[in-house]
């Protein structure tokens, strides 16, 4: 997600007038004070308002290491690998996946997000993609000229499985942990229905936040992950980091793991 570091209150001795100037100069401080961040569960309207209120894109590149760090585990070299980035926002990782050894030299990537602003921003930033936009009954489709990258702009609850097709790899960074809890089961059902038999499901999950914590991402226990994704998957844990300091809470952790079918 856009995990721009919330800035801790500066405790240095400065006069009140100076403090006012410092605060006025940091639009992020005001942004993080917005009532939106007092909400625990965000629906698509909240995300739209988040992107509308955001002061800018700079400093909003995310602090996680992302999927490229775990390429060996996630993208095993094989014919015709196809990757899905649900709730992709504007993640740079969509441009990254390594070449596949099949008849084509690239990994086809499909993204999906319910808000157009981050998707438009991604394609405008990457002019080399020479994108076009197609209007759909339920949203829009952004496509690179070479068709390697396609990003649907629609509510994930509205897309038909047949449109998405099947994927070898799912990259779920801040997706499972961002979808409104009311829609979590449906989200898991939709995304797991797109998996090929021999799949890799890369998941970034944040857990262990204090019970009173609000805002995004949701804190979800491993127990909950296992319960939502079902017992038929093997979970391989790749790394866990203490992210409490950057989120200014007592406890918060970020784990990367891969799910794959049990043999
Ligand atoms: C944490 S952000 C995306 C992070 C991104 N995957 C990354 O790696 O940087 C979560 C995204 O979920 C999208 N979203 C939330 N609910 C959705 C829904 N029901 N359908 C489609 N997108 C949704 C939001 O618009 C937002 O861009």
UniProtKB/TrEMBL annotation:
<dbReference type="InterPro" id="IPR029063">
    <property type="entry name" value="SAM-dependent_MTases_sf"/>
</dbReference>
<keyword id="KW-0489">Methyltransferase</keyword>
<dbReference type="GO" id="GO:0008119">
    <property type="term" value="F:thiopurine S-methyltransferase activity"/>
</dbReference>
<dbReference type="GO" id="GO:0032259">
    <property type="term" value="P:methylation"/>
</dbReference>
<protein>
    <submittedName>
        <fullName>Putative thiopurine S-methyltransferase</fullName>
    </submittedName>
</protein>
<dbReference type="Pfam" id="PF05724">
    <property type="entry name" value="TPMT"/>
</dbReference>
<keyword id="KW-0808">Transferase</keyword>
<dbReference type="InterPro" id="IPR008854">
    <property type="entry name" value="TPMT"/>
</dbReference>
<keyword id="KW-0949">S-adenosyl-L-methionine</keyword>
């Amino acid at each position: 997600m856009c995990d721009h570091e919330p800035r801790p209150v500066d405790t240095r001795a400065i006069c009140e007038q100076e403090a006012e100037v410092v605060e006025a100069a940091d639009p992020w401080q005001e942004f993080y004070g917005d009532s939106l961040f007092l909400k625990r569960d965000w629906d698509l309207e909240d995300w739209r308002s988040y992107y509308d209120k955001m002061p800018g894109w700079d400093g909003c590149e995310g602090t996680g290491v992302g999927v490229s760090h775990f390429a060996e585990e996630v993208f095993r070299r094989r014919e015709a690998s196809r990757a899905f980035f649900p709730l992709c926002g504007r993640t740079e990782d969509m441009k990254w996946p390594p070449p596949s050894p099949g008849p084509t030299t690239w990994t086809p990537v499909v993204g999906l997000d319910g808000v157009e602003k981050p998707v438009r921003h991604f394609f405008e930033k990457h002019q080399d993609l020479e994108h076009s936009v197609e209007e759909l009954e339920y949203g829009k489709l952004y496509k690179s000229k070479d068709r390697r990258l396609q990003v649907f702009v629609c509510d994930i609850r509205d897309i038909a499985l047949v449109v998405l097709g099947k994927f070898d790899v799912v990259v779920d960074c801040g997706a499972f942990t961002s979808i409104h809890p009311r829609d979590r089961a449906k989200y898991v059902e939709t995304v797991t229905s797109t998996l090929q038999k021999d799949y890799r499901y890369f998941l970034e999950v944040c857990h262990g936040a204090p019970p009173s914590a609000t805002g995004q991402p949701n804190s979800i226990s491993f127990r909950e992950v296992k319960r939502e994704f079902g017992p038929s998957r093997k979970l391989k844990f790749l790394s866990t980091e203490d992210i409490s300091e950057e989120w200014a809470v007592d406890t918060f952790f970020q784990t990367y793991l891969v799910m794959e079918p049990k043999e």
